[in-house]
Design brief:
Largest sheet: 5 strands, parallel
Order of helices and strands: HEHEHEHEHEHHH
Radius of gyration: 19 Å
CATH superfamily of the largest domain: Response regulator
Distance between the termini: 53 Å
Shape: globular
Number of helices: 8
Helix content: 40-55%
Number of strands: 5
CATH class of the largest domain: Alpha Beta
Strand order of the largest sheet: 2-1-3-4-5
């Protein structure tokens, strides 16, 4: 179980780009991960490269099962079910349709998702604390963008030093 948790942690950090230092796995255990995306081949190539730097070698101690379904929700749902039949330990999904298909397929296997707004998509109920089996990166957190602009304007009003490049559009966005 410890090896599985370590594997999932490393897999997640490959996308979040967190500085994680892990030792290469010893022994003959091969961990199986599933990649579900519109173009799983290029996604798996990137994933394999990122994990190789952390000691996970595709074909040695790691098997990456790739499934591409374009943007077709029905196809992606069938492919997500296929990954479950292959007994993957984690599903890495890219895009809204693939992430929703993975979520609908399992509530047991961890899913690392890269998608738009996970709350609006129904992947999670809140960003600060996930309660299910899904974690990942949001590529579009619009509800936070306006807050950042407001905070920058407030900092400027308090005469804090902020690079002008960060404030270029603040007055245009909020009036």
């Amino acid at each position: 179980m410890t090896n599985r948790r370590r594997f999932i942690r490393v897999l997640s950090s490959a996308f979040i780009a967190a500085p994680v230092v892990l030792l290469a796995q010893t022994g003959s255990t091969v961990h199986r991960s599933g990649v579900l995306a519109a173009d799983a081949d290029s996604t798996a190539k990137y994933l394999s490269s990122s994990l190789r730097n952390r000691g996970w070698i595709d074909g040695a101690n790691l098997a990456i099962e790739k499934r591409s379904g374009g943007g077709n929700a029905e196809v992606l749902q069938a492919l997500a079910s296929e990954l479950l039949q292959l007994n993957v330990e984690v599903i890495v999904s890219f895009g809204a349709a693939a992430s929703l298909a993975a979520k609908n397929a399992t509530s047991r296997i961890p899913i690392t998702s890269t998608s738009g707004d996970p709350i609006r998509l129904g992947l999670v109920t809140e960003l600060s604390r996930t309660t299910g089996n899904i974690t990942g990166v949001s590529t579009m957190a619009l509800q936070h963008a306006a807050k950042r602009v407001i905070n920058l304007k407030a900092a400027r009003a308090l005469r804090l030093t902020i690079p002008e490049s960060l404030l270029v559009r603040a007055n245009e966005v909020i009036h």
